[in-house]
Amino acid sequence: MDAIILQILNGLDKGSAYALIALGLTLIFGTLGVVNFAHGALFMIGAFCAVSMQRLLQLSFETIDETQKDFLGNPLKVKTPYVESWFGPEVGATIIDWSVPLAIVLAIPVMLVIGYVMERGLIKHFYKRPHADQILVTFGLAIVLQEIIKHYYGANPIPTGAPAAFRGSFDFGVLLGFDPNVIIYPYWRMVYFAFAAVIVSAVFAFLQFTTFGMVVRAGMADRETVGMLGINIDRRFTIMFGLAAAVAGLAGVMYAPINSPNYHMGMDFLVLSFVVVVVGGMGSLPGAVLAGFLLGILEAFASMNEVKSILPGIDQIIIYLVAILILLTRPRGLMGRKGVMED
């Protein structure tokens, strides 16, 4: 039982990333009808927003410290971060320590702008083109963005630490009545799952309970009729593209301490996220979230040594096997809508 609970927990954080990326993908496909293969790159850019914020807060200047001497007796030069000089050593150190959560403030406007520029500058020209054309152009855009990140940040992963308060592990087993040190789970992975739950809930609440969201949902169901009512549905869909980019970026920001940002991390998640979207059902937001968590947990169980000893390599193909089985029995996915990509 303890192994089962641990694998469920392990699957939740990766499933959270899958769900958030798939949610953004589904928002774009459901509103604009575009298969966006650059969405994984938006996840990557979000992670590098966390890297940028960390570096920004660590900018420093040199001063002479008369209390420290080198072996010749000369005073040493020490680097003092600007935030520590502005807010004091303790407050400044705390701000630097919390650079990843603070990167959300940077990521939201950056991702909204990138999403808007992508949609207005490129995507809008492919609305009426075949899905194959959309895949090719957005995949090419993803490669361009990937190479830009590689040029400015290098090819190696960049460690990005979580706040010190969340760097330890929580004895989850004791909470459930198990012996101590049986089920140990990192605090930040729990934070990431909670963060994903908040973002998913916020997106669904926005679409369900706001006038803007209701119009968007109506436009997703019948774009022409909404347009004839005098509503500029294209402008609202452009905003939704920016929001979808922001969701992917926020997912990347908070995932940075779990997986050190690197220039190809977007591609690593992209293919799996598209499998999640297809399994959940193209155009179905609840299906994307459900499939994300389901496949994340299945992947965690397939990674167990006991399972891999029986079926070597199963952890690499389990998601695709499940996708094949689901699509053979339910061609539209778990919660797919009739008529989506069936023309």
From TrEMBL:
GO terms for molecular function: transmembrane transporter activity. GO terms for cellular component: plasma membrane. This is Branched-chain amino acid ABC transporter permease. GO terms for biological process: amino acid transport. Keywords: Amino-acid transport, Cell membrane, Membrane, Transmembrane, Transmembrane helix, Transport. It comes from Pseudooceanicola lipolyticus. The keyword Membrane applies. InterPro entries: ABC_transp_permease, BCAA_transport_permease. Belongs to the binding-protein-dependent transport system permease family. LivHM subfamily. The chain crosses the membrane at residues 16-35, 95-114, 190-216, 237-258, 270-298, 310-328. It is a multi-pass membrane protein. Its main location: membrane. It is found in: Cell membrane.
